Amino acid sequence: MSGRGFRLSIAKIFKRVLLAVLALVAIAAFGIAVPRPLWYDEPALAKHSHRILVLSNPIHTDIAIPVDDDLMARFGFLRAAGLDLDNPNLRYLVFGWGGRSFYTETPTWADLKVEPVLKSFTLDQSVIHAELAGAIPENAPAVTVLSIDDGGLERLKQFVLDSLAQADSGPVSLPGSNYGENDAFFEARGYFNALMGCNTWTAAGLRQAGLTSGLWTALPWMLRLSLSLHNARDRFAASLSSTE
After folding, report:
1. pLDDT tens digits, residue range 132-164?
2. DSSP labels for 79-91?
3. Is the same domain home to 53 and 151?
4. Of 48, 158, 184, 234, which is most buried with the most CB atoms under 10 A?
């Protein structure tokens, strides 16, 4: 191949890579900027008195719900999985959804294996991860504080419950798959795929709670940015409640 032909080949490769990058940027921007739902028929004066948290790492998000008597009663089945709901330091129940293979086999980045990663890009059985948490600093970089009303909190709790697969005896736990003493895995409804995965589940739960997310938020930073973009009213409500 001549020098000129080689330069033309490199130019074509660069152009294709650039077009692919621009397409990904455009898709991400579209997914963040387009709200879902397009509108929300909530009374403008609804009191957003409950603060929930979205916890994120580079690839995954969880929803932290503050404990109250109703939450403890409805999620009492966690006791059967060995979780100490009577711990006096308990402040939140934290829930996340994901692919069974990757989620249960990768408690830390050091445990990352090729097979679970590849499975996450096809179809995998899904699981719910439930974890007990104490006080969580709301100003931590990985924490997003959101304010919802009574109806939103009720719908969010029901969304998590509806995400669990059910047997005659209730939710189905996965003994031995937990990371430690304060968490447990359960069979979940649906199948996991990296394009419609844990962060789109989190977004769906937040929409049930009355919040607005982006149309498609496959990564935590996309979800956080869309929440910030579309929920100015709720951030204002949260700031008011923090001063009361």
Report:
1. 999 999 999 999 999 999 999 999 999 999 999
2. GGGT--TT-TT--
3. yes
4. 184
